[in-house]
Structure formats: C-alpha cells, structure tokens
Amino acid sequence: MEALAPPAGAPDEALRILAQEGCIQCNKCTMNCPVHRVDVTFSPRKTILQAYLGGSDALSERDLWACLTCGECQAVCATEVPFPAFIRAKREALRSVRERTAPCKHGGYKEILAKIMAKPNLNQDRRGWIGDGLQVADAGDVIYFTGCMPYLDGVFTYTDTARIGKAAIKVMNAAGIVPMVSNAERCCGHDALWNGDRETFETLARRNVEWIRASGAKRLVTTCAECYSMLKYEYPKVVGDLNVEVVHMTQLIQELVAAGKLAFTKPVDLTVTYQDPCRLGRHSKEYDAPRAVLRAIPGVKLVEMDRIRENSMCCGVGAYANCDAQTKFLQQERLEEAASKAENLVTACPHCRIHFSCYLDGQPVDPLPDLKIIDVTDLAAQALG
Amino acid sequence: MTEEPQVLTLCCNWCGYNAADQAGAAKIPYSPGVRIVRLMCTGMADPYYVLRAFERGFDGVLVIGCHPGQCHYKSGNLQAREQTDRLLGVVQALGIGAERLRMDAASSSEGPRFAEIVNEFTETLRKLGPSPLKEVA
Amino acid sequence: MTGGTRKIGVFICHCGGNISDVVDVNAVREFAAQQDEVVASTDFRFMCSNQGQARLQETIKEKGLDGVVVACCTPKMYEDMFRGSAKEAGMNPYLLEIANVREQCAYAHRHEPEQATEKAKALVAAQVAKVRNLRPLDVKTAPIHDGVAVIGAGIAGIHAALLLGNAGHKVTLIEKSPTIGGNMARFDKTFPTLDCAMCTLSPKMNDVFNHPNVDLMTYAEVKDAVRAPGRFTLTVVQKPRYVTDACIGCNRCTEACPVSGPKSPIKVESEWNLGLSPRKAIYLPFSQALPQQWTLDADHCYYFQRNHTCGICAKVCPADAIDFTQRPEEVQVEVGAVVVATGYRPFDASQIPQYGFGKYADVYHGLQVERLLSSTGPTNGKLLKKDGTPPQSVGIIHCVGSRDEKYRSYCSRVCCMASLKYAHLIRERTGARVYNFYMDMRANGKGYEEFYQRVASEQVGFVRGKPTRVTDQATAPEEEGKLTIVVEDTLAGVVLRVPVDMVVLSTAMDPEDVDGLLASLKLDKSPDGFVKEYHLKINPTETAVKGIFVAGCAQSPKDITDTIAQAGAAAMSASMFLGSGSMTLNPLVAEVNPDLCRACTRCSEVCEFDAVRVDPEALVAIVDETSCEGCGKCTVVCPTGAITVRQFTKTQIAASIDALAPKAVAP
Asked: What is d(CA A179, CA A170) in angstroms, rounded to the nearest whole number?
C-alpha cells in the first residue's frame, strides 16, 4: 500500500486544517477540479470524506502530488474548505519522512536550485541578465525581487524568462524608479513550501528577510505571482513583518499610471486574453490590477475567456510538482479556450508562461492556432515606445 | 592530511571512463579527490547531477566524454556540451563560479590526457579554494 | 538512519596484492559492513577466480542477497562474468554493480594509500547506494525474421547474396537497374591479374540468378522501410518494364524500335555505355544482362510520348510479351536483416572544366574507357577516337576529383591501379604512347606493386604532377589538332606541354545517390558521403542500426578484392545475426512511464537511433527496445522525467553522487 502515514505519534496536522471548516459533501469541488476532468479517480470530495472517516492516510501518493493546489475547489466551496492547504500539510508530513518517489524533472532542477540558495555562504552574481540601458541600484526605496528568474533560462530553453525582468526594470525606470536588485536575494521558497519542504522554505524566508529588512527599502516589487504570494502572505507567518510593502508589478503599474507617473504612448495593437495565475488570483485575490494594466495600454483589446477570476483554470502545473500525462489535456483545454478569444494569451506569472510555452513548444494534442504567451509586464514595456 | 579538492567526474562509458582506466593502468597519478560516476553517455548528464553535486559539497564537476564526432551514440557529447554551456551561466550566477564546471574529452586510449585534464582541473580548484557551498563544520 | 529491506553483499577483491597492497581492504570491508542494508561484507584474494565466484554464489544463496557490489578492477573486465555468476546463483544479474577500486584507487593513488582507502570506501558506498535503488530487470528477446534483403546487385551484393543463400537464408536481392552486375560488368579487365572481368563475374551472376534461395528483384527500388524488433518491412517499388517474363530474348523489338534512329526526333544514349552509344527505347542493357528480359523506357518511347502512335515492338514480338498497361507496383518485403551494397558512380568530371570533359570529344572518364576497351562495348573493344581512328598518344590523368579539397578530399583507392591497367591495355591494343600524370603512385595491394613495375617497364611515361589544364589551343606545330596537357613535372621542376590524341580522366568514386534509401533505413553517412559503418576499424561491415550491414563501395571506395572481402564479412555478420534466431534486447535502455509522458515529442526529436516515437493515438512515447542504444539524451530533454534509462535513473545516479560527496565520507 502506498498510503501515507504521518510520522508515528505526530498529530494529524492535515486533518486539523481540513476540519476547521465543515465539508458538506456537495461535490462542487470535484466537479470544478481540473485534475478530476482528466482523471476521474481524483476527487477532493472523496478525499475529504475519507479523511473525516478515518484520518487522512488513505490519500495515495499519486493523488497527493496530482493536486495542482490551484484552489478552484476552495473557490467554489460553500464552506471554503482549504483543500490546497490540506494537501500541503500532507506533503509536509510525507517529506518529513522521505523524499517523494519520483519528482518531475524540472521539479528536480528547481528543487536543487532552491536548496543551493538556502546555503549560508552564497555569493551570487544574479544580475548578469539585466544588460545595458537598464538602471538598477544596490540600494533604494524599491526592491525588485527577481526570484528564480535569473536561473530559468538555463533549462527552459523555449522561453526567454529574463525578458520579463528586463521589461519590469524598463517600466520602473520610465517612471523614475531605479530599483534595487540584490545579489543577496534567494529563491522565494514557493516550490519548497508547496512541495512539503518547509525546512528549506523557512531557511530561504529567513535569509531573504535578513537583507530585505537591512536594505531600508519601503517597497518590494515582484513580477512573479508565486514570489508575491510567498512574500506577501507566507513570509509574515514565519518571520513576522518584513518592514516593506510587497506589491505585484501589475499593482505598481496600475498605481503609477493612475498617479500620472507612467504613460503608455505607443499603441500595442494586439487582441489578448488574460490568464489569472492561481497564486495572484485565487491565492492573493488580485484580479483587477493586471486587467487595469491591459486596459491602460493603447491598442490592446482584452477579450475575456469564459472562465476567469475565481473560476479561472490553472495553467496545468503547480509548483513543478505534477507535470504528467494528464497535464497536456488540461493545457490543450485552456489554450483552446484562449485561442478562441485572442491570438495572445497574457499572464502575470512567469511560470504560467513557462508551462504554456512548454506545451506549445512540444507537440500539442490537437492542432492549435498560433498563440503567443506574453507576460503583462512585457506588454507594458512595449507600450513605452 | 590536506583536503584535496573534491571533483565529481561524470564519465561516459566509452571514452571518459576507459581513459580513466587507462590512466590507472598506466599508474599515472591524479588527485584522489577525483570521484567518477559512470554514465553510458555524457548525453545523459542531467543538469540536475551537476547542481546536486555542488549542493552536496563537491568543489568542482567535470564531464568527460568522447571527442566531438567520436561519440559512441553519434551526438550525445554535443548535447552534453550544449547543456554544460547553458549551465555555466547558472553556476556562475549562483556564485559557485563557472570555473568549477568543465566539460572535456578524452578518447578511450587517452589515459595521459585524462590525467592531464583532471590534474589541471584539480589545480584550478586548489587555487580557487573550497566551494562556497561547502558546509563549514 | 532507518534500516532498509534490501540484502546487499559487498565483496572486496585483493587482486593478489594489486589492490590490497595499497588499499586497506580490512578497513573497506568494515566500512562496507556498516552501510545500510549491507548484510554481508567480505574480502578475498581473487574474486575473479573460481573460488571467488563460488564464494559470491554461496553468499548470495546463504544470505538471500538481492544486491551485490564487487569492489575490484574496472567493470570492463569482469562485470559480465560476475553478473553471470550472480544469475546462476539465482539473483537478478542487474542487481550487481562493480566498484572500480583497482584502476581508480589502488593504481591511480598507489603513493597515497590512506587517500586510496578513503576513496575506495566512497566508491563502495556509492555503488551500495546505487544498488539500493536498482530493481531487477528482465532480459527480453525478439525473434528475428529469417529473411535478408541485399540492396544492390553489383559484385558486392551478388557475392553477399550468394553466400547468404548458400548458408540457407532466404535472400531478396534488389537491384534498381534492369540488370544485375553493377559497374564491374562494364569492365574489360581487372587489375592486377588482367582477368577478363565478365569471365569472373558472369558465373556469379548466373549462380545468383538461378539460386533457389535468392529471390531477385530487378528494376526495383526500396522506397521505404519500417523497423520493428527483429524485422524490417521494406516497401519495394517494382518499376514497370512493359515487357513480361514471356520475353524470349529474340531482340526483334529492339531492331524494330524507331527511337535513336538517324531520323528519329527522340534520341537516347545508352546508360550502360555511359553515353558512348545510342540505345533504343526497348532494350537489353548488354548482351549478358540478367535477367534476359527486355525493358521499355517509357520516357523515350513513341507509344508513351506521342499518344500511342507507335507500338511496333508489340507488333513484332512473337511472344506477346509487351504490356503497355503495366504500372509501378509496391511490394512489401519482410526481412530480419539488410545488406546495403549500393555501390558507386563515377565523379562527374565536367565539374572540373579545365580538363575539358564534355567540351573536347576525346576526353573520357575511366568507366567510359572500360567500355571502349570492352569487346561488348560500342567499338567492340577497339580503342578509337570519336573520328574513328586509333589514337597515337594518350594521356591518363590520375586523381581527378580525388584528394582535392575542392571536390573529394578522399583517395578513391582504385584509380592508380586502374590507370596503370588502362596504360597497359592501350599500349597493348594500339601501340600508342601513353603518359600517366600522377600525384603519388599508390600500389598497395597484393600484386599491385609488381603490376606497377610491369607497366613501368612497358615504355609508359610517368609524369609526377597534377595537370593544370587540357587545351586544344596549339602553341607549337606538334600541338596542332591535338589535346595538350599542361602540367608541372614536380620531380624535374619544369612545366611541360604534352600533346596527345586522347585524354583519360581517372575520376573519383562517388557514392551512388541513395539518400532516400539511407533516410528510410535510418543510416548515416560519413562526412565523405559514403554509408557510415559502425566502427571504421573494428566493425566496418555493421552499421549503427542493428541488423543492417554494409558492403562494397557503398561504405567507401575500394577495389574488387576488398569488395569481395567485405561482402563476405557482411554476409557472415548478417548470417550470424539471422542465425541467432532471436535478438537479446539490452535491458539498459530507455523506458517510458506512460503516467508521466506529455507526448511532447522532445525525446523523439533528439534520438539519433529513431528508437522512440510518440504514438499519435495513445499520446504516449513508445521506445523500440531493439533500436534504443541507451544513451539517455532523451532523459535530459524530457520535461517530466517520464523517460528514463534503466539502471541510470535520476534517483540511482543521484544516490551515487550523494554517497561520493565529501560529507558522506567524513569520519
């Protein structure tokens, strides 16, 4: 049996999380679960029921890692049962005993990067991607937190992720902000936390908070939805107040445009549709800022998909935990939906962009029209002229 | 006992590994810090292995395959070269230092060349000192 | 540390002192005994001896081992043997790994015994860690189809087909021309013995034609090949001859055919005589062609080209063998092995305009001269200029296209000897003065140097130098009406102008144009354009594709002697392969976890062996274990980790790396 027992004697933390809210077994979670659509045996409702009846150990290792932790279930739940948090706790319980049996390949790459960045004596040179013409500083009021971005192009050859960072700096520079980009920065720890490696997450959080607090900066900007959700909501739980205001790049742009500090002068004639990243949307409840940015860019025509905001569908991979045979069907489904609305799919998370681009770089299940995956910050930079 | 630089050496089965055997058989000395893992081809040398080795405290990683054009599997060594080149940027950015990762080639008969490669690399690592990722006791 | 459930045995070999004089085997044994899941740790003087093997087997049985590490010499020595012993003792052989403590410890660090011992511990720990993560593997076999296809019926293909047929294999010999025989059938004599070429070839042609085990397909080309374990399915296109096998070979059709007649607007040259003579639309390439079945060339036939206005061949045919309704037919041929013997064609000498080929009437390439010298050739064996008179002087230029970076950088290997043969035959037949213009004289075969000496004594001129040009522009009276060869005699250091009546270009050998065939068979070419062999030195008859062999000039330029030798070797290799009945599939190859596969095709894109493809219906990558070589390139590009190479998975390798890492060996 591959059932997952918590360490002997340990309280079932996962069950406690689950029991906070009472599940009424209405099955809305399962009916809205993307994983359930491609694998009918995966059922949040059933898992919750089994947990209530006999503890949470009946969850198989396969199901444990199949969950995208996208939160669609929780978003539609009448009692808001925190299923993703339950899964996370179960993953922590497993990882306190052993490694997972077969981590996905890229998951392994990102995992080892995070572990390296958790080391004490790190002397990174993480600004090599910035290039000429962009201004960054060693100190300042605004921190641009780049996360794992400087390392992604080393393995994800089909996306130029550094492009997002360059765009962000360009936009900030245009608004008179010379952001601090620190070599002391570490991975935000998102994947570690969501894959059950709390130790690495907390180490990374502590190491990041140390330099963030010491910097004296007032604000911290991220272009990544995952970094945002970590720094804004998860870090304070572990390390207390960061002493900076954490904002997502789209929030910053929205604010700068409203204050007249940033003007988009060059039309970008594109029809786009918008993918709400789970970590920015359902996890952080930020649905409006990215849309506001898109509306502020002249020429951009935003055509919404049917499933948006709280009902948005996941890009198919959460925390690099679970890219597998079923993922392709989810990605096909979502990209078909996007392609039916626009030629460009805009998102506000580099990882959504990577996962969708990965799918398009390979061979789609069915032919897809030529669809471009663009980060919202990239579009904003293009509109600067 | 002075601490020798610890080198993870990923050798392909056909050239690098045989060259190491040749170096041994010819009793050509090289640093005992050189630790060899046999792969069938450098083409299977996943970036993960390189990063894992650094994470575990190796001072350097060497990838030794067949000479270009001589790969037992036609082009595995070329793919490994591309992978390694891409990884050099990552290793540099991480502050480990690109000098600590190297790919080279030694044919199955080139024992002396194998020893030369590992000795030269070990010497470079000795000058660089221990890897910054090495846990201090 | 938690205790595991595996039972691993570690065996440390002294190698009679080779290891134990440097490495402290007692310390390694004790270290090994403390490793997780190690239930037996022992050392022995010679693990490779009978006693050593017996101890290994006894311990496996006694302790019920499901994992073994032998710390000894390189796995290249005895890994197979130890695995065999383990298997005999009832353990899955793929649960055994070697820790190479001789070459990598005792030998390399013999002056640092302490460090050598520490490293030996680390290597043992690494292999124990790997073994802990290994799982038993089944060795699969696939039956091999008993048929063999030989592609190309020149001397290489004929010889290979005959040997394979004699060995009892069912052979399909596929030739794209209307006749078998290949280039050799065009030759007059063969060096160095000056045997009549057809006298040696013709009996072989007849043998293969009549061989009960050889199924001959002429005027047929392989269009596609599909590979499955132990089997190739070739799609062969049988081109229409428009002449059925009722043909009795009376030649009336050819005589009646108007094509290439004096007043005929449709003219066509004989491919067989390399453009030196016209041919009819319906023809037999040469008198000894096999099969003796005429062929109608629809591209140059009035019936096909002029709206059915002719058809005289059908009228005169007494056997009613003309069938204008024939169409190309596709035939599926199933075989277990393929011998590629597609041969060569002469380098196109007109690519070197300064030698005047195609410009001056009496400049010929070597194969044309073979036809001019042949009694079945256009001049019935008389060497004549285009004007019908015999030449008074002939210049033979070596290395035309060969050993020339602008054209073919390789040496074509036969031209020196062929040129000497032309020199000899021309002198013998016409008494003309003959000059050889050579770069280096390469006479490196049995009887070749002797032949060179013989020709050299026949008042043949030799000029060491590569001619710069051939010209009809006379600068002196003796050059009037002649072709003048301009050359620097590099031995004398003077520029010569040599007027001759006829110029022979000893052209390079080019591989026959078989790109389509090679692509469908998934064969590679070497940089020189010839079929790439498995290993140039030690395996020149096999290819990277299991079951496909190569012989003759398809692989590299070679003379008939070498062609015969290689064809024999290829036939032997193919016969052994077929005779094994089934192929053992190397289990250390890629496998796909369908639960993880995204069907993204990245694996199939990087695979050099066409061993993995994505099934468009099942949407999953499928590995052909007969083709997979286990290199693992695919494992690095797979985004999900769905494809792995057995015994080289990420978990297994990472376990070794962790065990070798510095902190793991710290005391």
From this structure: 10
Q: Could you say which of A103, A358, A363 has the minimum Cβ distance to residue C639?
A: A358
Residue C667 has pLDDT above 90, yes or no: no
CB contact under 8 A, A105 and C638: yes
User: What whole-number percentage of chain A has pLDDT above 90?
Assistant: 78
Residue of B44, B49, B50, B55 to mutate, testing the A interface (most A Cβ within 10 Å of its Cβ): B55
**Is the confidence at residue C430, as pLDDT, over 50?**
yes
Token pair, residue C382, equals 């008389």
Where do the DSSP E strands lie in C292-427?
Answer: 295-296, 329-335, 337-340, 344-346, 363-365, 393-400
With left for phi above 0 and alpha for psi between -120 and 50, is residue C219 left, alpha or beta?
left
Q: Could you give all domains of chain B from N- to C-terminal order, each with its CATH number? A: 7-128 (3.40.50.960)
Q: A362 contacts in C (CB within 8 Å)?
A: 598-602, 639
Can you list the domains of chain C with their CATH numbers? 8-137 (3.40.50), 140-238+329-343+512-585 (3.50.50.60), 240-327 (3.30.70.20), 346-509 (3.50.50.60), 587-646 (3.30.70.20)
Containing structural domain, residue A60: 13-98
Exposed/middle/buried for residue C218 (C-beta within 10 Å: 0-12, 13-18, 19+): buried
Q: For position A11, what pLDDT does the model report?
A: 57
Beta strands C329-335 and C363-365 are: unpaired
A75, A98, A121: which is the final residue of a domain? A98
Length of chain A: 385
Residues 6+ away with beta carbon under 8 Å from A267? A297, A298, A299, A383
Backbone angles phi, psi at C194, to 5 degrees: 60, 35
Q: Residue C31 corresponds to which tokens in the numbers above?
A: 């270290």
Q: What is the mean pLDDT of residues C583-604?
A: 93
> What are the tens digits of pLDDT across the range B53-62?
999 999 999 9
User: What CA–CA distance (Å, rounded) separates C142 from A297?
Assistant: 63
Interfacial residues of B (vs A; Cβ cutoff 8 Å): 46-48, 51-52, 54-55, 86-87, 89-90, 92-96, 132-133, 135-136
Q: Where are the alpha helices (DSSP H) in chain B?
A: 16-25, 47-55, 76-93, 111-128
Structurally, chain A folds into a number of domains equal to: 3
Distance CA A204, CA A345 (A): 32
Domain end, chosen from A204, A237, A256, is at A256
Share of chain C above pLDDT 70, in %: 99
Integer Cα distance of A342 and A302 in angstroms:
8
Same domain for A166 and A77?
no
Q: Which helix (H) or strand (E) holds C428?
A: helix C415-430
> Are A287 and A227 part of one and the same domain?
no
Of B46, B52, B90, the CB nearest to A151: B90
ipTM comes to 0.97
Report the residue from C599, C639, C651 with minimal CB separation from A363: C599
- Determine the Cα angle at C546 with ends C540 and C550, to 5°: 35
A60 to chain B, closest Cα gap in Å: 27
